[in-house]
């Protein structure tokens, strides 16, 4: 079994709210401010996105082999001067609220 690891940055925006973790269109859990969480996944190709209310992240497609650890970083896109753009994201750019980035390709356990 492979592992999907998500590292959520600690930031001001959304700090008291959890992001829902959605793998292959199924909600598998949540991640809170500053947490690192592991989710078991089967080998193969997957889609990952994070959601908060009706907003969320871009959808990322990735592949995993047995015993791999695939790591992603998650953070609110509303930082610094972009915090004022929260209304714009909520109304027009729903999938840009959270930035989801793959940190490494594959790390074998």
What's the quick description here?
The chain is mainly β and 109 residues long.
Tell me about this structure:
- 6% of the residues lie in helices and 51% in strands.
- It has 109 residues and is mainly β.
- The chain has one domain: Sandwich (Immunoglobulin-like), CATH 2.60.40.
- The strands form two sheets. Strands 1, 4, 8, 9 and 10 form a five-stranded mixed beta sheet that branches. Strands 2, 3, 5, 6 and 7 form a five-stranded antiparallel beta sheet that branches.
- A hairpin with a 2-residue loop joins strand 5 (44-52) and strand 6 (55-56).
- The N and C termini lie close together (11 Å).
- The model has no long low-confidence stretch (mean pLDDT 83).
User: β content, as a range?
Assistant: over 45%
Shape: globular
Overall pLDDT level: 83
Taking all Cα atoms into account, the compactness measure Rg is 14 Å
Largest sheet: 5 strands, mixed
Chart the SSEs and their pairings.
Elements: E1 2-8, E2 19-23, E3 26-31, E4 36-41, E5 44-52, E6 55-56, E7 60-64, E8 68-76, H1 86-91, E9 98-102, E10 107-108
Parallel strand pairs: 1-8
Antiparallel strand pairs: 1-4, 2-3, 2-5, 5-6, 5-7, 8-9, 8-10
Characteristic terms for this protein:
Immunoglobulin-like, five-stranded antiparallel sheet, mainly beta, single chain
């Amino acid at each position: 079994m492979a592992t999907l690891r998500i590292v959520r940055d600690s930031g001001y925006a959304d700090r008291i709210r959890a992001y829902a973790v959605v793998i292959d269109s199924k909600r598998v859990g949540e991640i809170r401010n500053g947490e690192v969480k592991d989710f078991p996944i089967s080998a193969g190709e997957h889609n990952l996105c994070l959601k908060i209310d009706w907003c969320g992240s871009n959808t990322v497609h990735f592949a995993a082999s047995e015993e791999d650890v695939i790591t992603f970083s998650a953070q609110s896109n509303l930082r610094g001067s972009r915090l004022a753009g929260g209304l714009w994201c909520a109304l027009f750019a729903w999938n840009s609220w959270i930035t989801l980035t793959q940190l490494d390709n594959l790390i074998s356990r």
